[in-house]
Write a structure and sequence with these properties.
The chain is built from six helices and eight strands; from the N terminus they run ααααααββββββββ. By secondary structure, the protein is α+β, with helices and mostly antiparallel strands. It folds into two domains: about 110 residues, lambda repressor-like DNA-binding domains (434 Repressor (Amino-terminal Domain)), CATH 1.10.260.40; about 80 residues, Immunoglobulins (Immunoglobulin-like, Sandwich), CATH 2.60.40.10. The strands form two sheets. A five-stranded mixed sheet has the order 2-8-7-4-5, with helices on one face. It has a three-stranded antiparallel sheet with strand order 1-3-6, with no helix packed on it. β4 and β5 form a beta hairpin. α1 crosses α3 and α4 packs across α5.
């Protein structure tokens, strides 16, 4: 990560926005380059993670955005995990407070209409036994809900960006060679491309590809994509002396 950025003192959004502005990039231009909706990048910069469809999308967008800004994705992801966990707890507290306030409001509106009824006979307070038919209905409903959730997860799986790791080279590398080996791993079934050219993976989903370089700065674009899924993009900047 840039030495001028303090992860401890700033949040993810502030780090992203500060570095983007220092590089002179407009958010709309970054969105077009990364092929990520501008509203999602804005949500990352604002720390509004709940505006992004899922945590998987948020992590993928954050990693690609960090790579674009020459930041260390690992450090930003660690900070994101802490911020998103706090945000989730905060949202739950706010939601519970909202429910409590609504209940209190309803109670205040109707407290004058509440009539005091005689205490019921003690035998009426005994819990009723659940009939076998009712129990079967309850179990069936629970299983149905579980099946629906499982099927939804299976159906939604292709729409998540595939995972991809680049083992080498590291970002912002300076060398005096005319070629470089790109080594990495991608999810099974993902199509990997380097600078738009397809790359063959082995049985372990690993890939190695030699890429020619030109004098000066080279930006290598590595992408992984499944059918109907968003594209996962990692950038590597290599400077040739």
């Amino acid at each position: 990560m840039n030495h001028g950025t303090s992860v401890q003192a700033e949040g993810v959004g502030e780090i992203l926005r500060t570095n983007r502005l220092s590089l002179g990039h407009q958010l709309s231009d970054v969105a077009k380059f990364l092929r990520i909706a501008e509203k999602y990048l804005a949500a990352l910069e604002a720390g509004d993670y709940y505006k992004i469809p899922s945590p998987t999308y948020a992590r993928g967008f954050l990693e690609r955005y960090a790579e674009f800004l020459n930041l260390d994705p690992t450090e930003l992801l660690d900070l994101y995990y802490r911020e998103s966990a706090f945000s989730e707890v905060k949202q739950r507290v706010i939601s519970q407070q909202s429910v409590a306030q609504k209940r209190l409001f309803l109670f205040n509106n109707h407290k004058n209409k509440i009539s005091i009824k005689p205490a019921p006979a003690l035998h009426l307070l005994r819990p009723k036994k659940i009939k076998d038919n009712d129990l079967q209905k309850i179990v069936g409903a629970i299983l149905s809900v579980g099946l629906v959730v499982y099927l939804a997860a299976v159906i939604a799986q292709p729409f998540f960006p595939p995972q991809m790791k680049i083992f080498s080279p590291t970002n912002n590398l300076t060398i005096d060679q005319k070629t470089i080996l790109i080594k990495g791993w991608a999810d099974k079934g993902a199509i990997v491309k380097i600078n738009g050219q397809s790359v063959i993976k082995d049985n372990n989903n690993l890939f190695v590809e030699e890429v020619p370089l030109s004098q000066g700065l080279n930006i290598i674009r590595i992408s992984a994509k499944k059918i109907n899924s968003p594209e996962n993009v990692i950038l590597r900047q290599v400077f040739v002396k």
